[in-house]
Amino acid sequence: MSGIHAMLVHFPIAFWALASLMIIVGALMQGHWAQLAKAGLLPVLILGLLGGIAGMVSGWLVWPADANLYSPLTRNHLLMSFWAFGIYAVVTALVWRYRDLVFEGAFRWAMLVLALMGGLFFAISGTLGGHLAGSPTPFSDLLGAGGWTVYETFYVPDWVLVVILILAVASAVAGFTAKTRS
Ligand code: HEM
């Protein structure tokens, strides 16, 4: 199953990377490329979610469940995969429901934040997967510099909690302000 997982995870990684790029182009640019990015975004997101499901199911079957849950490295990999999946699921639901409106006004900044966060989380998941398969990358040193020793710790560094809190408050304020205006 290890080989199958390694093969299948290329699908969510590729589709989510493309989706984030399309959101950046759609939100920040005008003209032909922006139109193309907006028009193609939903199918790419749906394919990304299907790939994510395949990646998560196959990943869970690589090792016995006890081994998955015992190792902090695997738990970090699992957690980051779930976060990435959750973020792209929200992005897919928003694009499905609001179509091109997600690229209007303040909405597009929220989409940009989600796209960048999703990209960061699947990148972390991928690099931790590389560790599990015996191919670590220098990206983990970067995580270590941020206070996260991926081999040993299974926790969220304090500064991440502060960022989450600031984002939550900013989102609530932006939401209330927009509601009051309308
Ligand atoms: C969308 C979700 C996921 C992505 C993008 C992902 C990504 C990856 C990547 C890139 C690798 C390295 C493959 C290689 O170079 O051979 C890997 C390995 C691994 N992943 Fe995942 N993964 C996901 C979900 C999961 C889940 C839910 C589990 C369950 C615990 C899991 C467990 C593993 C294990 C055990 C390995 C090491 C395989 C080995 O020994 O060769 N993955 N993953």
Describe what is shown at a glance.
The chain crosses the membrane at residues 6-29, 41-63, 78-98, 110-134, 154-178. InterPro entries: DUF2231_TM. The chain is an all-alpha fold and 182 residues long.
Write up this protein.
- The protein has 182 residues and is mainly alpha-helical.
- It has one domain.
- It is built from eight helices and no strands.
- The longest helix is centred in the first third of the chain and has 29 residues.
- It is globular and about 50 Å long.
- Protoporphyrin IX containing FE binds next to helix 1, helix 2, helix 3, helix 5 and helix 6.
- Keywords: Membrane, Transmembrane, Transmembrane helix.
- Pfam families: DUF2231.
- It comes from Marinospirillum celere.
Keywords:
mainly alpha; globular; binds protoporphyrin IX containing FE; 80% helix; 182 residues
Mean pLDDT: 92
- Residue share in helices? over 70%
Termini separation comes to 52 Å
What's the number of domains? Answer: 1
List ligands, each type once. protoporphyrin IX containing FE
Q: Report the C-alpha radius of gyration, rounded.
A: 18 Å
Structure annotation, total helices: 8
Shape: globular
Low-confidence stretches: none
SSE order: HHHHHHHH
Strand content: under 5%
Largest sheet: none
Tell me how many strands there are: 0
Secondary structure layout plus pairing:
Elements: H1 2-8, H2 10-28, H3 32-60, H4 65-70, H5 72-98, H6 107-132, H7 139-145, H8 158-181
Helix pairs in contact: 1-3, 2-3, 2-6, 3-5, 5-6
The structure holds protoporphyrin IX containing FE.
